[in-house]
Amino acid sequence: MVGPGRPLFVLFGSSIVQFSYTAEGWGAILADIYARKADILLRGYAGWNSRRALQVLDKVFPKNEAMQPSLVIVYLGGNDSMLPHPSGLGPHVPLPEYIENMRKIATHLKSLSEKTRVIFLGAPPVNEEKIREFTGNKFDNLGRTNENCRKYAEALVELCHEMNIKSVNLWTALQKRDDWLTACFTDGIHLSSEGSKIVVQEILNVLKEAEWEPSLHWKCLPTEFSEDSTYDMVAVDGKTTINISETNFHWENEWE
Length: 256
Prior knowledge:
The chain is built from 10 helices and 7 strands. It has helices at about 15-20, 25-35, 50-55, 55-60, 95-110, 130-135, 145-165, 170-175, 180-185, 195-210; strands spanning about 10-15, 40-45, 70-75, 115-120, 165-170, 235, 240.
């Protein structure tokens, strides 16, 4: 633990989370936006479904920790939605069980502290043709369909409404872009930088609109050590300095 203390955000879920720091991923973008404002911790496990996440929930989010996260963003569902394998093996989780697993995860996270906020991300769509192109014959019966992703995403959003939890339906959000099939994925499943930018904006929209006290939107959080200093860059007048603690000139997007 290092100081000073900042709000702690945890990203929890499967490969959409684990890979979120690569290829200009949404986790990396959030970490950049919240630099000097919040610490963003990655807890992503590629290939996992809601059953496996539930098994380690107490280890990842122990209730007896003195410092609890201010925000937990959870993505699970894409692997759960895969079609069942005849062997009984594989990541498939029936929809009713998936929803109950997510209910248990939500209940646990909400119990961590009065100030812990939760956002669930519903499964994004997939490009089935691109999946086949990318995997070749390696997974002949991959069993991942866009229609099943829709069912699991919509069911999760319904659960969130019921439990008063903030949510983002990624299945709907990504498809608002006309070229989503070609622009939003690296392999038909995982998100490209363009897909990640949509995820980031949807999360920021939730944070901006949420009536949480304190607000967790990046514009509402203080910037650490932002006071003026004689050690700042010297201005062109040669007499004053330029405080760049709030700078975002390196951003490709103007985030709201």
